[in-house]
Design a protein that fits this description.
Elements: E1 9-14, H1 21-30, E2 32-33, E3 38-39, H2 50-56, H3 58-63, E4 67-73, H4 81-93, E5 98-100, E6 104-108, E7 111-115, H5 121-133, H6 143-150, H7 156-165, E8 178-179, H8 188-202, E9 207-209, E10 211-217, E11 225-231
Antiparallel strand pairs: 1-4, 1-10, 2-3, 5-9, 6-7, 7-8, 10-11
């Protein structure tokens, strides 16, 4: 049974299995392996110092390599971690695996991420189900968090999602992405995208979505780490 942590946040993520080449690629790219909770050396990129690479990957290192399905939240009852994990296990057991379309390194705003083309229905159905099914476990946002999220220049639809679901980028605003950098301007963004694309091409293979991974952030100053991985039935 997981010990309750009152200040902890939990998230439901898609994360490749830790033994896969894709997990190793993403974890190395951001310099952090969330499965073991340890820093990793970031592979060299021409034109970037090691210090600059650590700087521009600081934000994705906070969260670990992942794609968000249910954004981070505090449990409504922080003593009920075991019941929450049981619910995730049951949810996962009812799902069937599917494969992602080809991943590519792309800019999403000013940062880089792994993305897929189009809106794969199975992927969006999974994300929608995670958001809705686990909302009863989510504690309401406090005023400071609501103000911080609401200050991001949101559309009316996104503000509605924020008020109802605690996060603006869900359902029709959901975009699958696995973040690889913080905000970058050109030419750095283009140079890093080229280097990451070359490394991704070297491990290109079908990517199964065959599990949900629960990540936990024990306190606001900590990084997220893998808590439990639940295979699909």
């Amino acid at each position: 049974m997981a010990a309750p942590i009152a200040a902890a946040r939990y998230a439901l993520y898609f994360a490749p299995a830790p033994e896969t080449a894709l997990w190793r690629f993403g974890s190395a790219a951001i310099g952090y392996d969330a499965a073991i909770g340890a820093d990793l050396p970031i592979p060299a990129v021409a034109g970037f110092s090691p210090e600059r690479l650590r700087e521009i990957t600081a934000e994705p290192r906070r969260y670990g390599f992942h794609a968000t399905l249910k954004p981070p939240f505090r449990l409504a009852d922080p003593t009920d971690v075991a019941s929450f994990l049981d619910a995730v296990a049951r949810f996962a057991a009812e799902r069937r695996p599917f494969e992602l379309p080809d991943l590519r390194v792309a800019a999403i705003g000013d940062f880089l991420a792994l993305m897929v083309a189009g809106r794969p229905q199975a992927l969006h159905d999974l994300a929608d189900a995670c958001v809705e099914s686990f909302d009863p476990w989510r504690a309401a946002m406090d005023a400071a968090e609501a103000a911080r999220r609401g200050a991001a220049g949101l559309s009316e639809r996104e503000r509605d999602h924020l008020a109802r679901w605690g996060y603006p980028y869900v359902f029709d605003r959901f975009r699958f992405h696995m973040t690889l950098s913080g905000r970058l301007g050109d030419p750095e963004r283009s140079a890093l995208a080229d280097a990451l694309s070359d490394r991704l091409a070297a491990i290109a293979a079908p990517v199964p979505v065959d599990a949900i991974t629960v990540f936990v952030q024990p306190d606001p100053a900590a990084r997220f780490r893998v808590l439990a991985r639940f295979p699909f039935g």
